[in-house]
Design a protein that fits this description.
The chain is an alpha+beta fold. It is about 30% helix and about 30% strand. The chain has helices spanning about 50-60, 110-115, 120-125, 155-160, 170-180, 200-205, 230-235, 240-250, 280-300, and strands at about 5-10, 20, 25, 30, 45-50, 70-75, 85-90, 95-100, 125-130, 135, 140-145, 145-155, 185-195, 215, 240, 265-270, 270-275. It is elongated and about 70 Å long. The protein folds into two domains: about 5-145, Beta Barrel (M1 Pyruvate Kinase, Domain 3); about 145-300, Molybdenum Cofactor Biosythetic Enzyme, Chain A. Helix 5 (about 170-180) packs across helix 9 (about 280-300).
Length: about 300
């Protein structure tokens, strides 16, 4: 079944129903002439006819398009099952999902006053405009789920020469894939093993800067060949010290050797970067804390301060 636009709708005041129009013009602020337009993350609202049909049973009447204050009424996709940072191509326009659902306005909402409930806060979604253009009823919608990219880099002279099998890198891959699966996000993970060489690490990281996340294992100690932190830390535009501080304190209390790890976390370009020790046990401990922050960190990097 094709995904398509059923209606486009505008309101001049917030908290009121929107009125179907022949077309809407999307610009850098959202829908031209709409009360919700502006330089924020909820520029364009969308709601599917699938949600309309369910609510009509409760309301015991036909709901007109725009009554839920949605700018674009769609058909053929369960909108609330999409995710922030997914995208839609509609004609010449490009929209990016920024929020699923919202806080209900309660008595200030016309539908809520009538029925005592509203579907928009639960099943409506919001987007920002990445590419302007015209949208009208009948337009086909192309759904582009976000595909996240992760680069896992193991630093080990012996593993890179084939003297022993890398175990920490595959464990990182497994844990990161489990994290993305739990969040119902699509992820592509690439893994590489390199020797403890500063220039090669720097080149590998620079080549991976299109990745959303870069994770290294090995080389975080104070040995003569432990160069990972010395290379990565100067590359960080923004350090995130709290993650590694927590890990060192949490595990160093029982195992003082964990305090020797110099691991860092931060942002390189548009990528989150984390340096982990080379043991499987340490990888499991570090990833247990890191994954708690990844979702919010990704949103913040993309300009979405969602809580």
């Amino acid at each position: 079944m094709d995904i398509k636009v059923i209606s486009v709708n505008i309101s001049e005041q917030k908290g009121t129903i929107k009125v179907p129009v022949a077309k809407i013009e999307l610009n850098a602020n959202g829908v031209e002439g709409d009360a919700h337009a502006g330089k924020w993350h909820r520029q364009v609202s969308l709601l599917g006819t699938e949600s309309f049909r369910k609510f009509e049973v409760q309301a015991k009447r036909t709901i007109n398009y725009g009554e839920f204050a949605e700018n674009i009424t769609t058909e053929g996709i369960i909108l609330y099952e999409t995710h922030p940072l997914d995208r839609f191509v509609i004609g010449d326009t490009l929209l990016e999902v920024t929020q699923i659902g919202k806080k209900c306005h309660g008595d200030s909402c016309a539908i809520y006053r009538e029925v005592g409930n509203c579907v928009m806060p639960k099943e409506g979604i919001f987007c920002r405009v990445l590419k302007p253009g015209t949208v009208k009823a009948g337009d086909v919608i192309q759904y582009l789920p976000r595909i996240f990219k992760v680069k896992v880099i193991t630093l080990s002279d012996r593993a890179s020469s084939g003297e022993y099998e890398d175990r920490s890198g595959p464990r990182v891959v497994q844990l990161i894939e489990e994290f993305f699966e739990a969040n119902k996000w699509i992820v592509e993970v690439e893994r590489v093993v390199i020797p403890d060489e500063a220039d090669e690490l720097r080149e590998t990281v620079n080549a991976a800067l299109e990745s959303d996340i870069i994770i290294t294992t090995g080389g975080t100690g104070i040995g003569p060949r432990d160069i990972t932190v010395d290379v990565i830390k100067p590359m960080l535009q923004k350090e995130i010290p709290g993650i590694m501080e927590l890990i060192r304190i949490k595990y160093g209390t029982e195992k003082p050797n964990a305090l020797i790890s110099r691991g860092v976390a931060g942002v390189i370009g548009g990528s989150l970067a984390y340096t982990l020790p080379g043991s499987v046990r340490a990888v499991e401990e570090y990833m247990a804390e890191i994954t708690k922050t990844i979702r919010h960190s990704i949103f913040m990097l993309n300009g979405l301060d969602l809580h």
